[in-house]
Specification:
Blueprint: H1 8-28, E1 37-41, H2 47-55, E2 60-63, H3 66-75, E3 82-85, H4 94-97, E4 103-107, H5 110-122, E5 135-141, H6 154-165, E6 170-177, H7 189-206, E7 212-214, H8 221-226, E8 231-234, H9 236-239
Parallel strand pairs: 1-2, 1-8, 2-3, 3-4, 4-5, 5-6, 6-7
Bound molecules: pyridoxal-5'-phosphate.
The site of pyridoxal-5'-phosphate has 12 residues, from β8.
């Protein structure tokens, strides 16, 4: 029995306001609003909420938990959605996500990348030319330092990027990072600025284009956009508080 009530009108109203705020922040920062992609983070919200927003025109959705994400993908299979995996990924779950997400934001260690590459090799080749599928990924960096368990340390980033860049069926598109949870709004800015600098440095050092910076959530996306975010991941401000 589904007793969970989804207030579609409220979600759409909040979503429209967020879209406006994102575009505004981009323009104020002298950026083209088209260069800032909004990911609606739908974790713990029902598939119906995703469906409502998708019909309203939103294509990018972010999920954190493998089983929940796959269940929603199956339920909403007839819709055109670009799924983003943004949560911590256990190595044993790599097999479940390979090839199923437009972008995996949370690759933070070599063992995980290796498992993902192995799994990609097992997927059927596509089309008549027998081309192998490529999984686009971001490297998640621990920009918040102490207390954060996800993300590669700054010191390990270059080595990880070099090794992962050599995997034929993984393509690094950029970096993802989260400031410490206690740093909201302006306090988050230095962390975003840091991630951007790391990205620029990495691009020069390993010679692979890294156009994406996935940073900024409900509490700090304006600052993230000002510091160069190309993906902002917003849940609460669109869907309301997450049900437990
Ligand atoms: C939950 C989550 C978000 C969205 O957070 P809100 O504060 O609800 O906007 C974004 N990114 C990641 C990695 C998350 O886990």
């Amino acid at each position: 029995m589904n007793e969970c009530h989804v207030d579609g009108a409220a979600i759409i109203a909040r979503y429209d306001a967020v879209v406006e705020k994102v575009a505004d922040a981009a323009r104020k920062a002298g950026r083209d609003p088209k260069d800032v992609n909004l990911i609606a983070v739908s974790k713990r919200h029902p598939a119906e909420a995703i469906s409502i927003l998708n019909k309203h025109g939103q294509l990018e959705f972010g999920e954190n938990y493998v089983q929940e994400a796959i269940a929603k993908q199956e339920e909403l299979a007839e819709l055109t959605i670009n799924w983003h995996f943004i949560g911590h990924l256990q190595s044993k779950k790599a097999k479940d996500v390979a090839g199923k997400f437009a972008l995996i934001h949370s690759i933070d260690r070599l063992s995980l990348a290796q498992k993902l590459q192995k799994r990609m090799e097992m997927l059927p080749v596509s089309g008549v030319d027998g081309e192998r599928k490529v999984q686009e990924i971001l490297l998640q960096v621990n920009i918040g330092d102490e207390c954060q368990k996800s993300g590669v340390d700054k010191d390990g980033l270059f080595e990880l990027a070099e090794k992962v860049a050599a995997f034929p069926q993984l393509r690094i598109r950029g970096l993802m990072g989260m400031p410490p949870a206690s740093c909201i709004g302006e306090e988050a800015r230095p962390f975003f600025n840091n991630l951007r600098k790391l990205r620029d440095e990495l691009e020069t050092r390993i010679g692979v284009p890294m156009e994406h910076l996935s940073m900024g959530m409900t509490q700090d996306y304006v600052q993230a956009i000002e510091e160069g975010a190309t993906f902002v991941r917003i849940g609460t401000e669109i869907f309301g508080p997450r049900p437990y």
